[in-house]
Amino acid sequence: MENIRNKVVVITGDGSGIGEAIADAVAHAISQPENASVNKIVLRATAQEF
């Protein structure tokens, strides 16, 4: 994952669901100490419509 510290990240959505989950994951990743390595952010569906 490219270092996204000190960069602008734009996540579209209505502030709930997958957009909120992505924003939370990105915020968590960039809040880690500089010497911590966050290589991947994995998103998995918790429910699926049939």
Automatic annotation (TrEMBL):
Gene3D superfamilies: NAD(P)-binding Rossmann-like Domain
Protein name: Uncharacterized protein
Organism: Oxalobacter aliiformigenes
Organism placement in taxonomy: Bacteria, Pseudomonadati, Pseudomonadota, Betaproteobacteria, Burkholderiales
